[in-house]
Amino acid sequence: MNKKLYLVLSLVLVATLALTACAPKEEAAPAEDVVEEAADGDTFKVAMLTDLGGLAASEEVKGFSDLGWDAVKQAESELGAEVTLLEAKELADLEPNLIKMASEGYDVVVGVGYLFTDAMNAVAPQYPDTKFIIVDSTVDQPNVASLVFAEEQGSFLVGAIAAGMSQTGTIGFIGGMESALIEKFEAGYIAGARAINPDIKVLSGYTGNFTDVAAGKELTLTQYGQGADIVYAAAGSCGLGTIEAAKDNGFYAIGVDTNQDGIAPGSVLTSMLKHVEVAVFNSIKGAYEGNFVTGITTYDLAAGGVGYSPMEYTKDVVPADLLTTVDGLATRIINGEIVVPTTVEEANTFVLPE
């Protein structure tokens, strides 16, 4: 090879190597950073399951399960969650529905209603990486959040309003399926009524389900025929029958869980509010942020978990001093001066502390 050509080629090679050495290097991302980015990109998935109550047919008559769905939809809009709903047709659906959602990789599975208790106890241990939420019951598993409410406290307040507004001295209570949970509503209502009128008469009856509107109406009319001029229903959709009966016959109903005052304006005296939407969203958000709280969380008056509606359509006919008294009772409950009974046996002998 020509010596001049050899010299030129050698100089080109040296220059190329120098440029290569001086160029900035593209380093591979550390393995942990790649994993973190992938985790950040994962879709947060939330499934909600209803028991036999299901969702309401419209916004106007929404009930207990709808509040849970409101929370899940809030998670969709605020947290970017992918959400789905699965409604049970019969009790036998509850366990398979839980398994279906957990096996499909949902991060959080919400069972709205105490009827999920046995099913969740069975399924949660099978899916230890899934976070389960149950409303209105307790499931003692390390990956379950149990959200419960002091329904007796909210019911105490509407019972006091009912007793203070009754013209006959007789009021009514309609329950759905008999259980310790629904007994809390009944007991609180009776005790609150006795706080205002120790001689009040409270008629009680149960429809045996949470879905039969006609049965709710029929039982309400029976109590109305026996002198009840205000009837409180803690019976799911059966309570819509109570409201219909009140509207048709000129007496008062009391709604439950959601603000049902607008279903029949002027015929629904007030509603006992139960903020399921707040409790469920808080729990979902905790899971999303890595702070999922398992065990039992109680939403009472002090926590803003229960209360009564603003009475938009009836407040002008309720004596101001009665509402002042009721709010005073609420304060005493929060302060621990009044312990509201949770059983009918205790409620029937309740005496307001001095």
Please provide a written account of the structure:
The protein is built from twelve helices and twelve strands. The strands form two sheets. It has a six-stranded parallel β-sheet, sandwiched between helices. The chain has a six-stranded mixed β-sheet with strand order 7-6-8-9-10-12, with helices on both faces. Strand 3 (about 110), helix 5 (about 115-125) and strand 4 form a beta-alpha-beta unit. The protein folds into two domains: about 40-150 and about 275-300, Response regulator (Rossmann fold, 3-Layer(aba) Sandwich); about 150-275 and about 320-345, Response regulator (Rossmann fold, 3-Layer(aba) Sandwich), CATH 3.40.50.2300. Helix 3 (about 65-80) runs parallel beside helix 10, helix 6 (about 150-165) packs parallel to helix 7 (about 180-195) and helix 6 runs antiparallel to helix 11 (about 320-335). It has about 350 residues and is α/β, with parallel strands linked by helices. It has helices at about 5-20, 30-40, 65-80, 95-105, 115-125, 150-165, 180-195, 215-225, 240-250, 275-290, 320-335, 345, and strands at about 45-50, 80-85, 110, 130-135, 145-150, 170-175, 200-205, 230-235, 250-255, 270-275, 295-300, 305-310.
